[in-house]
Write a structure and sequence with these properties.
globular, alpha/beta, 2 domains, Rossmann fold, 14 helices, seven-stranded mixed sheet, Arc Repressor Mutant, subunit A
Length: 324
């Protein structure tokens, strides 16, 4: 039987505690219907007997204390809410325990912004990781040795797992159920909870806002200029002339400050504007393309799909406002 520990931590998101618990328990119920014994032992554990969540709105009782656990097969770190750095500080005492359990053979999975605590253990250094897209800039600042990828929904790095934002955690739970119990059980659970088991990307959900938490004033001005003039072509040389910086220096400083190249940043700003237009449903694809400064249908489609994982047509059909 797989011993699964779901941690109760200060600043945890309640749904990311309850959802994995329900997922593994439903897998057990399905196995019972097949006249098989339960495969998962699921327990809620915490550094103390009770944890208050959402500023005291909820109080969750731990089934055991973490210092009572000798071994576990899988430890789940739930999503942490903002302010993230405060909750990281509040939960830092559990980091040595996580490191110890991993060294004993436990696998560890983080859900959504629980990746911040997992990264704090050092177990993600030089490994791929995902988290909520909204927190990606802060994550890169705090954990530069971790390879954050924004377009995937989960990662598996030899027993260290991460999931992307919010309810995408359900896809990681299904992945783990399939790994431990097989495809049939995972498909049943996906149908029971009505989760798309094949979803693999969070790209369609990302809202690009640009990374402005840096001290390079000139680059901030360049970012603002790009965002205010996304309808124009915006050649990089024109930006360099406007801000009186050589191209190589401008590109180096821009990449350092924003983690994007200048071209990537321009593309993301334009596509974010295009997404908002398509969501409203009052412009055609061609009108949208021209509005954000593209005049080549193939180029617009290719960049749009690269950034969102969807074609403009598919995105429009998925999100456009239905006009009466």
């Amino acid at each position: 039987m797989k011993k699964i520990i779901i941690l109760l931590l200060k600043g945890s998101n309640l749904s990311s505690i309850e959802n994995p618990r329900q997922g593994f328990e439903e897998a057990n119920r399905y196995l019972a219907q097949k006249s098989q014994g339960p495969l998962f032992s699921v327990q809620l554990a915490a550094p103390e007997s009770k944890i208050q969540l959402n500023n005291g709105l909820y109080e969750v009782q731990a089934q055991l204390l973490v210092n009572e656990i000798q071994r576990a097969d899988l430890i789940i770190i739930p999503a942490l809410q903002e302010p993230l750095q405060q909750h990281l500080e509040e939960n830092k005492t559990i980091i040595p325990w996580l490191q110890q359990q991993y060294n004993k053979g436990a696998e560890i999975a983080s859900l959504c912004m629980g990746a911040f605590l997992l990264a704090g253990t050092g177990l993600l250094d030089n490994k791929k990781c995902v988290t909520h897209w909204k927190a990606s800039n802060l994550f890169c600042q705090l954990f530069p040795r971790v390879h954050l990828i924004n377009d995937k929904i989960l990662t598996d790095e030899n027993g260290v797992y991460t999931s992307s934002g919010a309810y995408s955690a359900s896809n990681l739970i299904l992945y783990l159920i399939e790994k431990y119990a097989g495809r049939e059980v995972a498909i049943y659970c996906s149908k029971f909870f009505q989760i798309d088991i094949q979803r693999s990307s969070q790209s369609p959900f990302i809202i690009f806002s640009g990374m402005k938490d840096h001290n390079d004033v000139t680059i901030k001005e360049a970012q603002h200029f790009i965002e205010q003039n996304f309808e124009d072509r915006l050649p990089v040389d024109t930006l360099c002339e406007r801000f009186a910086i050589g191209r190589r220096t401008f590109e180096r400083r821009f990449k350092k400050a924003t983690t994007n190249t200048v071209v990537e940043y321009i593309q993301k700003v334009k596509i974010e504007a295009a997404k908002k237009i398509l969501e409203q449903g009052y412009k055609t694809i061609s009108e949208t393309m021209y509005h954000v400064g593209y005049n080549d249908v193939k180029a617009f489609r290719d960049v749009f799909k690269k950034i969102t994982g969807m074609t403009p047509v598919d995105y429009k059909l998925k999100y456009e406002k239905i006009l009466v």
